[in-house]
């Protein structure tokens, strides 16, 4: 099926059906073959029928989500993913998939909730901290950007200072906070120490890995007033 040899796949499934006539796994393969042919309604019907016999089969639920996504029907994909997560709350891949759909639809508050769930269940995965920080920065506002800065910092901590995107995130957040808090008391403003460390780490990284672009980096950091 991955190679679009659907006739061969159909023959293989016939052999499996003969060998395992009551197999639910073979039933799933039949549904996936229908998906490969673009017969979405028939595939969804096949999965719904299988779910009646085994409502706790996670693969069948995910296949239905895949059908909705393939057709560009994101509201239905969101509905089914939320319904799936009511039962399988510890499925990290499902939470991440839901978060990415929300981001694609610019539903950032909902995406933030998904990443919060992921960080609660897997607090040492830097990817979730980074994605959450990106969403918070996109939402904007002083409180969100301050929190985004903290999660960019935790990403740097979890990766041993090796995450270039998080270092840039620190600089962007620092610049945004400076603009948003302009005119406030000094007590309300943040120390520039973290942004200076991030800028220095970026310059060191570029010197080692992309020296030809060091001047471009320096110019960008100066425009952010972090260098």
Automatic annotation (TrEMBL):
The keyword Repeat applies. InterPro entries: EMC2-like, TPR-like_helical_dom_sf, TPR_EMC2. Part of the endoplasmic reticulum membrane protein complex (EMC) that enables the energy-independent insertion into endoplasmic reticulum membranes of newly synthesized membrane proteins. It comes from Citrus sinensis. It comes from the Eukaryota. Residues 26-135 form the EMC2 TPR-like domain. PANTHER family: TETRATRICOPEPTIDE REPEAT PROTEIN. Belongs to the EMC2 family. It holds the Pfam family TPR_EMC2. It is found in: Endoplasmic reticulum membrane. This is ER membrane protein complex subunit 2. The keyword Heme does not apply.
């Amino acid at each position: 099926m991955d190679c679009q040899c659907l006739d061969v796949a159909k023959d293989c499934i016939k052999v499996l059906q003969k060998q395992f006539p009551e197999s639910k796994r073979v039933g799933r393969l039949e549904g996936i073959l229908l998906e490969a042919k673009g017969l979405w309604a028939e595939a969804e019907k096949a999965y719904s029928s299988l779910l009646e016999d085994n409502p706790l089969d996670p693969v069948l639920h995910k296949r239905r989500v895949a059908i909705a996504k393939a057709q560009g029907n994101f509201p239905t994909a969101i509905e089914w993913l939320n319904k799936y997560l009511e039962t399988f709350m510890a499925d990290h891949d499902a939470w991440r998939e839901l978060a990415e759909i929300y981001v694609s639809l610019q539903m950032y508050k909902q995406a933030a909730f998904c990443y919060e769930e992921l960080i609660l269940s897997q607090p040492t995965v830097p990817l979730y901290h980074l994605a959450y920080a990106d969403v918070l920065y996109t939402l904007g506002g002083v409180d969100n950007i301050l929190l985004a800065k903290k999660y960019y910092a935790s990403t740097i901590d979890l990766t041993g200072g090796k995450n270039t995107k998080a270092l840039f995130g620190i600089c962007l957040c620092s610049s945004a906070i400076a603009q948003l808090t302009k005119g406030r008391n000094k007590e309300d403003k943040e120390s520039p120490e973290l942004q200076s460390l991030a800028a220095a780490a970026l310059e060191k990284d570029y010197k080692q890995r992309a020296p030809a672009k060091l001047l471009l980096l320096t110019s960008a950091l100066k425009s952010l007033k972090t260098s």
